[in-house]
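Minutes, methods subgroup
Present: GH (chair), OT, SY

1. OT presented the first of two proteins processed in the latest run. Sequence and structure tokens recorded below as shown on screen.
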Amino acid sequence: MVDVQFSFREESGSSDFAFPSPPGQPPPPAAMLHLQKQLLRLRGSITPALLSLHRVLFSTAVAVDAASRGQFSAVDYLVNNCGLTPEQAVKAARYISHWKSPSKGDAVLAFLAGPDLGLSKADISHVLVSDPRVLNCRIDRTLKPRLDGFRAHGLSGAQIRSLLLSSPCSFRSCNIHEILGFWIPFLGSTEELIRHAKRSDYLLKANINKVVKPNIALLRECGLSDYEIARMCVPNSRLLTSNPERLKVILARADKLGVPRHCLMFKQAVTTAMALHTETMASKLKSLGEIMGWSPDEVAKVVRINPVLLRYSEERLRRVSKFLMMVAGLNSKYILSKPTVLMYSLERRLVPRYYVMKVLQEKGLPRPKSFYTLLPIKDELFRLRYIQPHKGVLPGLADAYTAACNGELPEARYE
């Protein structure tokens, strides 16, 4: 094994700076040695950026030197044939540095770009950056059988491509029949699996029997159905892929929010407990009481009704509460009885609908007595009930409401 040291001594001191050649690689040409020394003199110290630059320079030099001697260069192949950047190629080169020729890689690239998969060069680059070991796979023993496995579970060519791009490792390392055979029925469809995989590929990497199934069993004990568990995984895939002991801690933290298990809102308590650490949760509870002027018991009551409130930022809660109390005229006791009002968007719902209500009031037109009753209604129904009937009297109301929803009216900007 060659271990050549590249050194120089600064004129102002006696410290030597040295970079070893990567194991198994020949020393770089004299010109590269000179360039490395000049870089070190310019920087005066070794930094992570300089080390990274050294790796790229060294690998480039080795590639040039190898090419000049007719030898295979892994970095050169990854850059020129696979579309990787020099930095990416340096990191991936160790997986194919043992090649004597590019014939195996050429066959894999042809298969990936061929009619069975139809990946573009950009797609192939994406796959190889994530898992360069795909280039070492045998087509007859690994790639083709895995492709057949995807098809056996009903995946189309487009779905296979989508799944491969979302989780490149799934094409080489996972047990396809176990993974697809479990997740497709549990999530309800192939489309749902792909949707989850696009958000996170943890579902395809987690151990089904040791991790996923025990976590599902724990959540079932809390009264959650498989459908509810699957829905909870859309934003929180780690709920099923984390160590079961960690999930037990999360469930215990959810219990402290006071929402009974087997209650409809318990799933919201679980997702909230997963998003917040114990200290953060305590801080959120305290700030919610300070913002709204509620006692600890009142805060606990609100959280039991809607634990998701704890996931909102303090700034958002302050702005919404200020509008509701100072502009809309709702006091803290009223909000305590209807805490859902704090969850609506200030810009997209609260301000625009309050604007419409005030216009109707000023014109003496029919309007609801309570501002709160305007909020849960979907936008289409709101327009149908409170804007369309008055288009003859107030022809600009619809446009004004739309502008308010886009934050374009002065009344829509509350700080």
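2. SY then presented the second protein from the same run.
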Amino acid sequence: MTTRATRRPLLSAALATALAAGLAVGAGAVTATAEAPAVDGASGIGDPYWPLDGNGGIDVATYRIANRYALATKRLSGRTTIELTATQDLASFSLDFLLDVSRVTVDGVKARSDKTDGGHELRITPARTLAAGSEHTVVVAYADHPARYSYAGERNWLASRDEVVAMNEPHMAPWWFPANDHPLDKAVVDVRIRVPHGREVISNGELLGREVGRHSTQWHWRADEPMVPYLAFFAAGDFAIEKGKHHGLPWLVAVSERLGERDQAASMRLMRKTPAVVAGLEKDLGDYPFSVVGGLTTGLDPGFALENQTRPTYPAVGGSATSLVVHELAHQWFGDDIAVEQWSDIWLNEGFATFMEWRWAESHGRRSADDVFRSYYANVDATSGFWKVPVADPGADKVFDAAVYGRGAMALQALRNRVGDEAFWRVVRTWIREQRGGNGSTAEFEEVAARESGQDLASFFDAWLRTPTKPAATATNGLG
């Protein structure tokens, strides 16, 4: 976020705990080694920043979203089919969802549903207990006006009578589909959105087709690789669309026709840079992690760009804002392919994406990343609040603070200075390889850095990530 071949997701924390507790995995189900009463799945996955995010007792494999959106009235209706595995014996479980629900079924049988925890949790009680390890199909039907709702101080529905874009971080899914809304539970997302004739819909992944009805058209998009719920998006309105292939990688970009003629032209010039930027990033980071790429410029005013998986979204920023495209596409590796373990690990997303902006400038004949790093250090006074944010655990109220971006990037360049260029890029590529398709934590990154560099980096990371003061200008801190 900026003010950012099919694989099964890694085991969720809840499922890993269940397995460690002695549940045996069979071809179809998990059988407990001892009798235990069914429980109500927890209303959160265990992240201290947002305790209601995610849910206990379930691991989602697939979301099949089928929605209708009326631009003129801003009403969204539809149903989402969720394929999930119970990771405990469950009497009930929750999904994160804000809208009004009319019906829920579990395996085709009507289930009871209730809103709890201020309306954020959809508590589902199936007709029968779900056994740990068993797989189930949950269907939720709904209709409502998403703009009515807020959660965690966020009112995230961005829409006019002519355009809508579902984009935000750390939360977006509960405004348009029920989800296990935390980075620990990635799932394949299949999106069908029906809109009035003449309007386009853009979403993640590949456009699989359009179904034309009497008064409306349904657009069908699907991303091959599992994703975190907040990275799923759709936009509906009037868009100019271009597509092609670059070195075998399919790309598709779109620009809102609600923008003025000059802004449209400039935005399309910027969006067309997407495949070349990916190719440039691959030189440092290795293969792009997904099967398609693209971008969308909205005619609305979100105030930020966001790294939606395979297709980041941008405000209209002109045709020369290449560094913004670099930032959001770097997130495809750092934040999308490798998601955070907890929201306290957010610097691993934003610090890396910001550092890759510096690296892009360096590799394209402009200022070196070290020059940018040392300029930051020299010009931010020791009394600045910038140094008071411990970026390894900034707190929910500072999760997107400037220090998370800037000090996070500085920590990476300082590491590069400390261990040397060869060892630094070995650390980065090992991190990408070992965490691919999963989640990463600060502690895990520190372990990789120490292992691949052969150095004791404990005091270095304490100084850059955890100590709320300006690091000393020493060689140990990468400032020699």
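Chair's summary of item 2: Residues 1-198 form a domain with the Immunoglobulin-like fold (CATH 2.60.40).
Next meeting: continue with the remaining queue.
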